[in-house]
Specification:
Largest sheet: 8 strands, parallel
Number of domains: 1
CATH topology: TIM Barrel
Shape: globular
Strand content: 5-15%
Strand order of the largest sheet: 3-2-1-10-9-8-6-4
Structural class: alpha/beta
Order of helices and strands: EHHEHHEHEEHEEHEHHEHEHHH
CATH class: Alpha Beta
Number of strands: 10
CATH superfamily: Divalent-metal-dependent TIM barrel enzymes
Length: about 350
């Protein structure tokens, strides 16, 4: 069964343990050492920010950026890995403090688009035509700080410029309702796909759904996935878990709500997601309490939980479930699901 699904994670998921309320407590793991862990943990794909692949990207020329990303592709190949996507990391640059694409400053908006073009260059050199847009600081701390009508037009203009820059690049918008901004633009997959539909080439713009982001919006992640799947627009997932409306916790998949995790697996199974060849991405962080030598268990555990839930779904008596649905006996259906989940 592991061959049915391909799994990815980003190097930021092996981290030093800092959270919004405390500093790092584990030593930094070198990037090369992280890459060496992927295969042993059962992963084939690497999620990249542009400056993960090309450090100090702002100091380099386009030719230098492409060359360095090409070298990274060779490093990946030596490890038997591939790049899933590249994403522009605008939110850590001081110029992006008030958003890049939706900044009130036209010079900052131009910088954000040029940086994203370099991200396209990185993706291509890494061997992928896939880019992810997480719109981090694209929003406001107070509503009156920006003209939201114009801000959404700026986002559309940026997308169109990137689509025009490279005719092969595909873009998945990753929605989130808040954090780090108080109010984020494009908070749900519905907003993301509505924006995609307005672009100059809607066929090349889709969505990526993260479990925790949907929960923070007060929505069910599996329903968000179903909406995108129905439109043929679910191009990746970032699975994790979230214990209520707190900061983005990135808990191990299924750790807070196993039934919610099961339904995410179920909807991917219903859509035959493995047949698309797209990755199941994880975006999970080790608990702050984890010691360095066991600070990758969250990744292995999340993958194991996912595959266990796949087995649970495939083992479900589908005929019996269908009968109960026809009879509208949902109490019995629920017990069937729960007994299946609890079965050894």
């Amino acid at each position: 069964m592991p061959a049915d699904y391909r799994f990815s994670f980003g190097p930021w998921n092996i981290h030093e343990g800092a959270d919004p309320f405390g500093p790092p407590i584990r030593p930094t793991v070198a990037f090369a050492q992280k890459l060496g862990m992927y295969k042993s943990l059962g992963f084939d794909g690497v999620q990249f920010h542009d400056d993960d692949a090309v450090p100090e990207i702002e100091k380099l020329s386009p030719a230098q950026i492409t060359a360095q990303a090409g070298q990274m592709r060779k490093v990946l190949a030596d490890q038997g890995l591939v790049a899933e996507f590249s994403a522009p990391r605008l939110w850590e640059d001081p110029r992006g403090v008030d958003g890049g694409f939706t900044s009130n400053d036209p010079a900052v908006r131009r910088w954000a688009i040029e940086r994203t073009k370099r991200c396209v260059d990185v993706a291509k050199a890494l061997g992928t035509n896939f880019m992810v847009w997480w719109l981090a600081r694209e929003g406001t701390y107070i509503r009156e700080a920006k003209n939201a009508i114009e801000a959404h037009k700026h986002l559309l203009d940026a997308l169109n410029q990137i689509l025009a820059y490279d005719k092969e690049i595909t873009i998945a918008i990753e929605p989130k309702p808040n954090e780090p901004m108080d109010h984020a633009y494009i908070p749900t997959i519905g907003h993301a796909l509505a924006l995609a539909a307005q672009t100059s080439d809607p066929a090349r713009v889709g969505g990526l759904i993260e479990t925790a982001h949907a929960v923070l919006a007060g929505l069910d992640p599996s329903d968000e996935m179903a909406f995108a799947l129905a439109a043929g627009k679910l191009w990746s997932v970032h699975l994790n878990d979230q214990n209520g409306l707190k900061f983005d916790q990135d808990k191990a998949f299924g750790a807070a709500d196993l039934r919610r995790a099961y339904n995410q697996v179920r909807v991917l199974e219903l859509a035959d997601y493995p047949a698309t060849g797209r990755f199941v991405g994880l975006d999970v962080k080790a608990m702050r309490t984890q010691k360095p030598q066991v600070a990758t268990r969250h990744l292995a555990n999340s993958r194991q939980i996912f595959l266990t839930l796949v087995r649970k779904y495939r083992a479900l008596d589908k005929a019996r479930a269908g009968q109960l649905i026809q009879q509208r006996d949902y109490e019995a259906l629920e017990m069937l699901i729960l007994e299946n989940l609890m079965a050894q």
